[in-house]
Design brief:
By secondary structure, this protein is mostly helical. Helices cover 76% and strands 0% of the residues. The N and C termini lie far apart (47 Å).
């Protein structure tokens, strides 16, 4: 009850600052005090949330709407994959966790490849991606050290962070490394073709050779016992990034054939994932799920969508960074309740707090740059 009262008071103050009345037409006397506090808290949260998202809505006309919606789904899928095992522990259904784990990060990587594909990757793109990805990758761990006010081992942590990226926001660093690899792959192709042609044969062959080289380096690392697992992530997720690039390169063909490729891929993912529990099968299974998700969202979500979905889809980096510490914090605040209720409450509160935190970071140019990778605008 104390938390509800505190949340109500805080939101009322925020609401007053925004000059929008709360709980219009609600009679306080009709509910017991503690129920009224809870009711007002949730009503205020969603009222304020809608106000904030209305202020921050994206107005760009060149965005791919269904891709933004798919990114929103992907980050929610990732959050669900983290909430379930953290809240339920050993009681979580292993098959549910397996279904989510097979698809969640490969889907993110494929979307990244689709949205960022360019026929010719220039060095300017690499520098831009460094600011968007590596700067937040470095800055976010510092936030958690500042929150704990304990800087013991921070030097060793940062020295190891780049060879063990899973100690931080590994996806950001791995995505930057893949962008860097794409720059050199593209440069080799252009030199080989003397800048006259970027043929499909050279494109597909170079992707295949690059993956083979990554696997060779991975096995060399493993055999020689070299410390670091960054190459594991790059070798594992490069095929999904490549799949996204291939789909964008053949966008017209893809969109005209997704009507049968998508359902087929979704069928493969849905059925085969149940029987095949091995990393050897992850690439075909995840690829089927990726095609299925692309089909669903291109078919049904290529239209103006509610602001909350578009804001989520354009704020995935910040939500990805914030949501795990939020899950851990909320877990300690939960009262004894049925397990399903704990999961729902943790998920909803994590989502709300994460997007509000992203909104706060976006309001300041410095925090938007350091933690969200948004460049300064003149």
């Amino acid at each position: 009850m104390f938390i509800s009262v505190w949340a109500s008071a805080l939101l009322v103050q925020l609401d007053k600052a925004m000059r929008q009345p709360l709980c219009v037409g609600r009679a306080k006397s009709s509910l017991p005090h503690f129920l009224f506090c809870i009711d007002s808290s949730f009503y205020a949260i969603f009222t304020l949330l809608n106000k904030l998202l209305e202020i921050c809505r994206m107005s760009g006309s060149n965005r791919i709407l269904w891709a933004d919606a798919l990114k929103a789904f992907a980050i929610i899928f990732v959050m669900l994959g983290h909430v379930l095992p953290f809240v339920m522990g050993d009681k979580a259904n292993p098959m549910t966790i397996h279904y989510i784990g097979v698809l969640q990060m490969p889907l993110f990587m494929a979307i990244s490849g689709y949205c960022s594909y360019k026929a010719f990757v220039e060095w300017l793109v690499v520098k831009k991606r460094f600011l968007q990805l590596v700067v937040p990758f470095i800055c976010w761990p510092l936030v958690w050290y500042l929150i704990k006010m304990d800087f013991t081992g921070i030097t060793d942590y940062y020295l190891a962070l780049f060879i063990f990226p899973d100690r931080g926001l590994w996806f950001l660093f791995v995505l930057f490394l893949i962008t860097l690899i794409e720059y050199f792959r593209n440069k080799v192709v252009r030199i080989s073709l003397k800048n006259h042609d970027n043929s499909d044969i050279a494109f597909y062959f170079s992707l295949l050779v690059t993956e083979c080289l990554l696997l060779t380096v991975f096995y060399a690392y493993k055999r020689c016992g070299v410390p670091g697992n960054w190459i594991n992530f790059v070798a594992l997720y490069y095929p999904y990034y490549s799949l996204g690039c291939i789909m964008r390169r053949n966008n017209n063909w893809l969109l005209s054939n997704l009507r049968w490729l998508g359902p087929l891929g979704l069928l493969v993912y849905s059925i085969a994932t149940y029987f095949l529990d091995s990393y050897l099968w992850q690439i075909p299974l995840a690829s089927g799920g990726i095609l299925g998700m692309f089909f669903i969202f291109q078919r049904f979500f290529d239209r103006p969508l509610p602001r909350i979905i578009m804001f989520t889809g354009t704020s995935t980096l910040g939500i990805y960074a914030v949501h795990q510490p939020v899950i851990q914090y909320i877990k300690h605040l939960l009262i004894k309740a049925p397990l399903w209720a704990d999961v729902v409450i943790t998920f909803v509160l994590t989502y709300i707090i994460s997007i509000l935190a992203v909104w706060v970071f976006k309001k300041n140019r410095i925090t938007a740059f350091l933690f969200l990778g948004i460049p300064f605008r003149r």
